[in-house]
User: Fold these one by one.
Assistant:
Number 1:
Amino acid sequence: MNSVERVAQRTRELRQKHGLTQQELAEVADMSEKFIQQIEAQRKKEIWVSTVERIAAAFCLDLHEFFAPDVPEHSELAKKVVSSRVHR
C-alpha cells in the first residue's frame, strides 16, 4: 500500500470511527468537503505532509499516531461538529 492509499484508508477509518460525514470532517479539519472526498477516493496523486497534519490534528493525533499500524484508540475530535442536516 502506498502513502496516498494509507492516508485515504486511515482518514476514512477515523472519520467512520467518530461517526462523521465527509462534510463534518471537512469542517473540523478546516478543508473543503470536495478535498476530503478526493483524498478518500484516492484521486490525489500526492498529499502534502501539512495536509495529513491537519487531518491528524482534527482527531487530536500526531503524525506518528495517524500512521500507526492500528487505528488509534484514543483519538478525539479537535472541535465540536455541527451535525450535517443531509445525513442525520
Number 2:
Amino acid sequence: MNSLFLTAADSTTTSSLDTWLSALTKLNLSTILAAVVIFLVGYMLIKWAAKLLEKLLGRNEKLDPSIRSIAVNVVRILLLFLLILTCADKLGLPTDSIITLLGTFGLAFSLAMQNSLSNLAGGLFILGSKPFETGDYIDVPGAEGTVSKVGFIHTILTTVDNKQIHVPNSTITGSIVTNYSQCETRRIDLTIPVSYDCSLEQAKQVIEGVIASDDRVLQQPAAPFVRVWNLGGSAVDIMVRVWCESGDYWELRSWLLENIKTTLDKEGIVIPYNQLDVHLIDKK
C-alpha cells in the first residue's frame, strides 16, 4: 500500500515537473515583456486602489485607524496574489501548481509561526471586540500607557514619559485589561489621617471646604463623600470620595491632596505619622 502511494506521489511530481519544463520551453521574449507590463501596470493599479480604499475608509470617523490599516493591507495582499496568478497564466505557467505550492508554503509557514499567528488572531479579536481604542489609556500586566496603534502582531503603548512599549496581542487577550478612558467620569478615593486630639467635625468641614472650592468636582453620579472610615493605631482615617471627568483625574487628585494638607496645617489639625512610645521602668 505504501509503495503504491509513493509511486503515485512520484508520478504526480514528475508530471508537474514535466508541465513546468514544457511551459518554460515555450516562453518567448514577447510573452515575457507582456507579463512584465501586466505586472507593472497591475502593481500601480493596486497601489492606487489601496490609497483609494484608505481614503474612503478614512471618511468614517467611527472606524478605528487600526482596522482601516489592516483592511487596506489585506486587500493589497489579495490583489497582489491575483496579479501574480494573472502574470503566471500569461506566461503559460500552470497556475494550479502555483496555488498548491503557495498552499504548502502557507501550511509550513503557519506551523513555524504559531506564536505570531496567535498574536494575529489576538489583534483581530481586539479590533472586533474593542476593549479599547486608539487614544485610550490602558493597563495590562507589565505595562500601561496610551494606545498608539493596534497592529497585526503587537499593540503599541506610549507611556507618560514618552516611551513606546510593544505588547504582544496574545498577551492582552489572555490577561486582564484595565481601560481608564472608556468611561467619561472617574471617582477619586483618598484617605486622610488626622490626630485623635483634633475635632473630627472641624477636620471634615475643612476637607469639604477644599472640595467645594474646585469646579472640577462633580455632583453626579454622587455627591462628595467625607466620612470617618477607620480608627487606626495612631490616627483617625477620614475617607474622601469625589467624582470628576476622566481627563481631570490625576491633576485634581494631586490638587486635592496638596490643598487638604495645606489647609489642615493652617487650621492646626495634625496629620500624625506612625510613632512608637517607649517607657523605661527602673526596677531598682
Number 3:
Amino acid sequence: MSFTQSFKLAIKSLRTSKARAILTMLGIIIGVAAVIVIISLGNGLTGMVEQQVEKVGINQIYAYNWGFGGGALALDAQDIYDLVEERPDVFVGVTPWVSAGSGTRKGSEKYEKTSILGVSEAFYNPELSTTLDGDQLAKGRFLSYVDVWQRHNVCVIGAYLEKNAFGGDALGQGIIVGGVPYTVIGVMRQGSELMEEGGGDDVVYIPYENALQLSGTRQVQLFQLTCTSRETSGLAKELLTELMLDFYGAQYTESATTFMIQTMAEQVAMINSMMGVAMAVLVAIAAISLLVGGIGIMNIMLVSVTERTREIGIRKSLGAKRRDIRSQFVIEAGTTSALGGLLGIGFGFLLATGIGTLMGGMLVESMGASGVTFNATPTFGAVAVSFGVSVGIGVLFGYLPANKAAKLNPIDALRYD
C-alpha cells in the first residue's frame, strides 16, 4: 500500500470518529500552542531589550568605583577624564553619575520622592538629541560644559515636576534642590504614559560637582562612558581595568569589590542568557503536554488495533506484509499528531498575538521604555520546530501499536470477534 493510500485511510478513520480524534489531539494541540506562545513572548521580550539598548547605545560602558577603606580611597573623577582625553580613538565622552538623594521644593510644596542626579554635559548627546538613557528634551537645553565646571545652580527637570510644580511652564523658574535655589533651564520629554511621583519622569539633573556637595562626599561611584563603536568597547574595558588596577594596586581585583567595569554588550548578553534559560525551562514544562499527547495517541492506536483486528487479518490473508500493516498505523498516528500540531500552531498564533496586544503596553509601561514596542509574533523557526516535534511524537508513540498490529497472526486475527 502506498503512502497516499495510507494517508487517505488515516483521514477516513479520523473523520469516522471526530470526537475521539479531537480528544486524542488535545494534548498535542495544547503542547504545541504553549511552546509557540512561550517562544513568541520570549522573542518579544528580547526584542524589547534590543530596542532599549539601541536607544541607549550598545557602545556604553559602566565603571563602578567603590574604592576601599569605606570609600575613603577611591579613584578621582579627573583620572577618568584624563584617560578619555588621552584616547579619543576609543572614548567619545564620560559622565559621572552621582545620586544626591531625593526631595525638592517649589514654594511651600514639597516633592519628597523626586530623584536628584548629578551628571556632566556628556550625559546629553546633541547630535542624537537624546540622553545616554535615550530620553529626549522637550524644552530648553541641557547642562553645558560651563555649567558643570563652574558649578552653576541650574537644573533640568522631568515632565512630572514641570506639570505638578510649575503648571506646565517651568523654563526660567526657580526651584529649591537640597536647600539651594536652582534655575530650570530644560525640561525632559515625558517618558511614560502614566506619570507618577517618584517615577522616571520625576527627576532633577544638576551638575555632578553640585550633587557631590549635596551628598557630602567627594567620591563618584559610577561613571558612564561612551566608546567610539561597539568594536572598541573591549579595548575601552581593558584600558579602564588597567587604570583601576594601577590606582588600587594589583592585589585589589574586581572580586575585592573595589571596582567593576561592564560594557552594555556584556549586560545584553547576560540578560539574553538568563532569558534563554528561563525560556528553555518553560518550554520543557510545556513539552510535558506533548508527552501526554503522545501517550494519548499510543493509547488510542492500541484501541484502534484491537477494533480493527479482523481487518488486519483480512489484509494479511490477501498478501499484506508486516511492513505494510506497520506503515499504515504509523502513518495514521503521524497524521493524527500532524493535524493536532497544525491546530496547535493556529491556536498558539492567535493566543500569542492576543497576549502580545494585551500585555505589550503593560510591559512597556512597567519598564518605562518609551518608544519601544512589544511584538510577540511567532517566528518561522518556532512554528517549524513545533510542527516537526508534534509529527515526531506521533510517529514515535504510534510505532508500538503499529508493531503490535504487524505481528498479529492472520488466522487468530480472522477468528477475532
Number 4:
Amino acid sequence: MAYYVWTQQGATGDLQSVAQKGLGKVARLYHANGLDLYITSLRDGTIHCPGSFHYIGLAFDFRKASRVSRGMLVSTLGDDWDVIEHSTHYHVEYDPK
C-alpha cells in the first residue's frame, strides 16, 4: 500500500536541507505506522511568533496521528530537534543545543 505526504493549501516555502531531512524522517515514521503525513505549515505566512524558526526554513508543522507519539518523534529526530505538541498538530524545529 502506498502512503502519501500531503501539504495543506497555503503551506509553502523551502526548508533548509537539515529540515528537509528531518521532515523525511517524520514521513518515514508515519508511513511505517500505516499513515499519510499531512503538513500544515512550512516557511509560510506571518502567523508565527516573532523569531519563529518557520521564517528561516528550520521548522514545520504537521497533523497529529493516534499511532505516532511525541516520544516516537523525539526518538526518530534526535537531540538537535525540539518537538512541541499542540492539540491538533506537532511543531518541529531544528535547534541544536
